[in-house]
Amino acid sequence: MADYAMTTGIVNEAIYNGTATKNTNTTNKYGELGKNDFLKLLIAQLKYQDPLNPMEDKEFIGQLTQFSTLEQITNMSSNIEKFLQNQQSQNIASAAGMIGLDVRDSKGEGGIVTGISIEEDGTYLVIGDKKVSINDVKKVNYPT
Questions:
Q1: In the structure, what pLDDT confidence band is assigned to residue 28 with cuts at 50, 70 and 90?
Q2: Whole-model pTM?
Q3: Does 123 lie in the same domain as 101?
Q4: Contact 91, 103 (CB under 8 A)
Q5: Are residues 60 and 114 in the same domain?
Q6: 70 and 6 in one domain?
Q7: Distance, CA of 144 to CA of 60 (rounded, Å)
Q8: Pair 70, 63: CB distance under 8 Å
Q9: Do residues 79 and 111 share a domain?
Q10: Closest by Cα among 92, 97, 115, 104 to 141
Q11: Which domain holds residue 80?
């Protein structure tokens, strides 16, 4: 219980004195604390720990491990976002290159592509009054 009170005091002190700040680069869209805030809280905890009862090595190592894991997850999330944006750009470029071509899906259905439609769930080819996902295209030909 004393650890909870000490941690709560440190968190409150860090927040009210500006030690922990909300930084858009370190918080997610839900307003959760990010890696910079975690590090600032860890430093505040070390700064205000009781010298007669210091933090145990196991606790400190555990917190450093959590910090390292948080940083790796944040970096991985950023890389995945960049990958998905790149993938969407490639799909748009591929779809634009199919305008005027005859495309078919696995059932042999399709026709001449007259445009593209970019929607939340993907990139679509416009064929007449239909939309076909670029992921469903199995065959592309020059029109005859």
A1: low
A2: 0.50
A3: yes
A4: no
A5: no
A6: yes
A7: 71
A8: no
A9: no
A10: 104
A11: 2-84
Q: Read off the tokens for 20.
A: 């922990």
Kindly state the tokens that stand for 78.
């950023």
The distance between the two most distant Cα atoms of the chain, rounded to a whole number of Å, is 87
Yes or no: say if 104 and 139 are a contact pair by the CB < 8 Å rule: yes
| Distant-in-sequence contacts of 40-46, Cβ < 8 A, 24+ apart | 40/14, 41/10, 41/11, 41/14, 42/67, 43/19, 44/10, 44/13, 44/14, 44/19, 44/20, 45/7, 45/10
Considering its fold, how many domains does the chain have in total?
A: 2
Domain match, 109 and 78 both? no
* β-pair type (137-141, 122-127): unpaired
pLDDT tens digits for range 86-100: 888 898 899 999 999
Number of continuous H segments (helices) and E segments (strands) in the chain: 3, 6
Residue 34 carries which DSSP code?
-
